[in-house]
Amino acid sequence: MPHVIPTNGRAPIPLDIACRSKRDQGRVYLKAWSEVDKFSVVLREADEPGCDFMAFKVLNEEVLVQLEKDLVDYGVEVEQVPAEELKDCGRRVRFTVPSGHAFELFADKLYTGKWGLASVNPEAWPRGLRGMKAVRFDHCLFYGPELAATYDIFVNILGFDLAEQVLDPEGTRVAQFLTVSMKEHDVAFIHHEEKGKFHHASFYLESWEGVLRAADLIRKCCSRPHSGRTGVPAAPAPDPVRSGAR
What we know:
Layout: E1 3-6, H1 12-18, E2 20-24, E3 27-31, E4 41-43, E5 51-57, H2 61-73, E6 78-81, E7 92-96, E8 102-106, E9 136-144, H3 147-157, E10 161-167, E11 173-179, E12 187-191, E13 197-204, H4 208-221
Parallel strand pairs: 5-8, 9-12
Antiparallel strand pairs: 1-5, 2-3, 3-4, 6-7, 7-8, 9-13, 10-11, 11-12
């Protein structure tokens, strides 16, 4: 399960409505109700919005060791992050892709089960859900340059597949949507001259009605405008004022 650290002091308002959290050393650990690991999102307060890193969970320690070796052999510089640097999470391997974004791989995290459901004869969904009722973390969209080199790392080393793309009139890829699961995409990149820009993190809801209700809650909590629907048919164009940071 990927997790992301958005660095926006206001972000905990809507997310805390949707998920359950635990604070630790200034961090807020969050999970949606269907997620079985202890957390999928970590927030910390900062002066401006952004994303420290996005991480993907691998099958086991053996796979983590092999992917780390593959990254190094490919010429990617890696950094070791010790276990428990994030509470109840095992060691992580961090690397930065050519678009300027940091990613991590890890194999172990404390299993706590789905929130509000018994491990034996569970109900279909937990009682007492509040707010946006997010089911799970879904994906992130990043802005940056060097999409082709970033694509090579995700596809040739990490095993992602290209789900969708946008080509300019010269045939250059200017947007790429990558998947490593059954989802439409797990991570996406749109070309932008400045490196390391974060556009959004997305959460899965069970219905279109749920999305509309979540939008109403966001409007009540936050006054800042948002970009609307996403995906290739309506992928948001780079904002020269905010430089893609949401």
